[in-house]
Amino acid sequence: KKYNVAIVGATGAVGQELIRILHLRSFPLEKLTLLASKRSAGKTIETEHGNFIVEEFSVDKFQGQDFVFFATSGSHSLEFAPKAAEAGAVVIDNSSAFRLDDNVPLVVPEVNPQAALTHQGIIANPNCSTIQMVVALNPIHQVSPIKRIVVSTYQAVSGAGQEGISELNTQLGEVLEGKSPKIEYFTKQIAFNVIPHIDVFQENGYTKEEMKMVNETWKIMGDPNIRISATCVRVPVVRAHSEAISIETADYIGEQKAREIFSQAKDIEVIDHRENGGYPTPLDASETMVTYVGRIREDISCENGLALWCVADQLWKGAALNAVQIAELLVSEN
Ligand code: 2RA
């Protein structure tokens, strides 16, 4: 069987990667429809799998679709994802609009695949920084419940879309030419800098990005008792998010057992050698489909503690790949 697939927001950073991933994974496509704003209609998206023409978004284009991937804003998904579901499509939404909705499964196929099968038309794709963390931590959680997570993220500028990428590139050039860089998208200069602020500040002093890592992890791993604190930082990297993670487990695991658990886990690649270059970096992870784990060691600051370093391509595993893997899950169930 082949499937009619539409991508809403096809010209965005994630939208374009959805086109690539669908082809790279030979998803059984009957017809691929690319939808974007009136301004983008008629544009050609060039990929290594061919060039694709973008059509203007309209609700009637949901008719006959088997899957509709949303890669636009939360407000756009909120308004139009239900209409795509009403038209009979399965919606896989990359925005935060429905992630914490009790009637919408929030799915990472390596962690809670069964949740995808409970969908009522819409399935939410988690936030990129959450996805790679739960892929890495769930195998440990299955051996001994994780009681606490402290995570600092080092998030690529492409997480902020095309604007983030162009702001970094422009600023780097301006600074290297001795000019004062223009700051248009980020809150402060990102070139040769880091910014501890992604999304809006909440009452409790955390940002929305940081609370996404808390609330989404609880839902995906099905355990709201895990104590989680996150600090999400934007760094001058184009693609792939990195995370320094410290956890406490109920029982002692130790680094050797932890390394074994990661090595045997699905879609995790361990790069963990205590020598120059013996750890994964964003340049290693970019345009790959696995979640990398390294720097595995006992956390010496607590009992039953483990510390690790986790890197993944946030446009692929953190967004487009995870979304397509959800569709693959449903197709394999048919
Ligand atoms: C970011 N995770 O990195 C957010 C949204 N993609 O900006």
UniProtKB/TrEMBL annotation:
Pfam families per record: Semialdhyde_dh (PF01118), Semialdhyde_dhC (PF02774)
Family: Belongs to the aspartate-semialdehyde dehydrogenase family.
NCBIfam families assigned: asd_B (TIGR01296), PRK14874.1 (NF011456)
Protein EC: 1.2.1.11
Catalytically driven reaction(s): L-aspartate 4-semialdehyde + phosphate + NADP(+) = 4-phospho-L-aspartate + NADPH + H(+)
Binding site for substrate: Q155, R234
Gene Ontology MF: a single term: aspartate-semialdehyde dehydrogenase activity
Class in the EC hierarchy, top level: oxidoreductase
Catalytic residues as annotated in Swiss-Prot or TrEMBL: C128, H241
Function per UniProt: Catalyzes the NADPH-dependent formation of L-aspartate-semialdehyde (L-ASA) by the reductive dephosphorylation of L-aspartyl-4-phosphate.
Start and end residues of each Semialdehyde dehydrogenase NAD-binding domain: 4-119
Functional pathway: Amino-acid biosynthesis; L-methionine biosynthesis via de novo pathway; L-homoserine from L-aspartate: step 2/3; Amino-acid biosynthesis; L-lysine biosynthesis via DAP pathway; (S)-tetrahydrodipicolinate from L-aspartate: step 2/4; Amino-acid biosynthesis; L-threonine biosynthesis; L-threonine from L-aspartate: step 2/5
InterPro entries registered for this protein in UniProt: Asp_semialdehyde_DH, Asp_semialdehyde_DH_beta, NAD(P)-bd_dom_sf, Semialdehyde_DH_NAD-bd, Semialdhyde_DH_dimer_dom
Transmembrane segments annotated in the record for this chain: none
UniProt name for this protein: Aspartate-semialdehyde dehydrogenase
Record keywords: Amino-acid biosynthesis, Diaminopimelate biosynthesis, Lysine biosynthesis, Methionine biosynthesis, NADP, Oxidoreductase, Threonine biosynthesis
Complex formation: Homodimer.
Organism: Aliikangiella maris
Domain of life: Bacteria
Binding locations of phosphate: R99
Residues holding NADP(+): T11, G12, A13, V14, R39, S40, S158, G159, Q314
